[in-house]
Amino acid sequence: MNDAVNAQQTSSHRAYFGVFLVVGVAFGLVGPSISLLAEQVGVNLASVGIVLVAYGFGYIIGTQIFARGYDRGFGNRLIGTSLLIAASCLAIIPFVSTRIVLALMFLCFGAAVSTSDVGCNTLIVWELKERVGPRLALMHTMFGVGAILSPLIVRGSDAIRGDSALAFWFAGAAIATIAIIVLLHRPPTDPHLETRADQTDISKKQIALIVMFFLAYVALEVVFVTWVYTYGVKIGLSKTEAAILTSTFWIGFMIGRFATVFLARKSHGILAIQLGALLNVAVCIALYFRFDSILLPCALAYGLAAAPQFPLMFAFIGSRTSLSGKLTARIVGTAGLSSTTLPWLAGQFLERVGVETFPIFLACTATIVLIATKLITNNFGVSTHVSQTN
Question: Cα–Cα–Cα angle for 338, 114, 366, nearest 5°?
Fold first, then answer.
């Protein structure tokens, strides 16, 4: 009987792979559809940026309120319910005609996505325990796999209907399907439930360093993928070429996430984060000096360098503390805070100041990632890498 229960429990992580796959599809729609959404509600690009703020604010709400339910045993029920809410929001977005209602839909979508994000990151660690390292990386890889075709899906919807409706409906249907699959799986239980109360939490200084890292990393990734399509159009690319540029980033991102599966088994994870941040800076320099002939290789390299940084750092931290839903919510909530403010800010600079602000902004975030990584490893210790325990 116990073996049967364990078998049910150990299959949940496969459903979590599906969650990240379809959420990647949905998230990848946002950047390429920004201009279409602006036309839909009759505002300019700078004004429609409010939806990014709403999405990020909703993301924070999800992590700080709803995600606490994982420590109370809601498990897959909470993931599945949040995904159904996300699917409903995506289905409604094409019918919205005002900026305020559009922002409200993105707020609800952000809260739902962050709730499922915290759940998948927490429950996969609970389920797989010491085997989680490569699988955590693979789960995050699925996000890139989902996002890689999103710009082309938006472009197809634009060509057929002149808007992004088909893309959002497709993503909504995919998310609803995965939600049902998750609800049919038995959730894993918290392996630290009996001992966590006696364990010392990480210090405020360590939390501050974690916040510093993930604030910068999420900006490094999200600002690029949100605005690279618009950046491409502004420097003279056609819409199709700009969509290909965005997809090229996701190709690099997917390859980088696949590579993370193997990096998580080696002793070079932290080094990979540092080298990745340096490569991101190098790409920003190329963009700043307008080496337009290598735009596609730059997008590929940027995604390749950025992709491993989140899962490797998350696994590094997870190996050095008793990971609870609350702690994961802090980490993911930091990502939401970054998503709330920094993509919007970067968009204001891009629209109101000029295209040269785009690589400068990104180079600053990559530099902060590099500094934060060094400070975190100094404080948590890096004598044996996370992958040797995971």
Answer: 30
d(CA 85, CA 91): 10
- Return the CATH number at 171: 1.20.1250.20
Q: How far apart are CA 239 and CA 158, in angstroms?
A: 10
Q: What are the residues whose beta carbons fall under 8 Å from the beta carbon of 301, sequence distance 6 or more?
A: 252, 279, 282, 283
Residue 122 CA, chain-centre distance (Å), reads 15
Q: Which two tokens stand for residue 187?
A: 């959730």
Cα(270)–Cα(377) distance, integer angstroms: 8
Region class of 252: left (phi > 0), else alpha (psi between -120 and 50), else beta: alpha
The whole-number average pLDDT for the span 277-284 is: 96
Q: What is the pLDDT of residue 197?
A: 47
**What's the pLDDT band for 217 if we cut at 50, 70, 90?**
very high
| Tokens describing residue 100 | 């305020």
Q: Which of 343, 322, 324, 334 is closest to 63 using CA atoms?
A: 334
What is the number of structural domains in the chain?
A: 1
Domain that holds residue 262: 2-388
Q: What's the maximum distance between 2 C-alpha atoms anywhere in the chain? A: 65
Letter string b/e over residues 132-146, b meaning 16 or more CB atoms within 10 A of that residue's CB: bbbbbbbbbbbbbbb
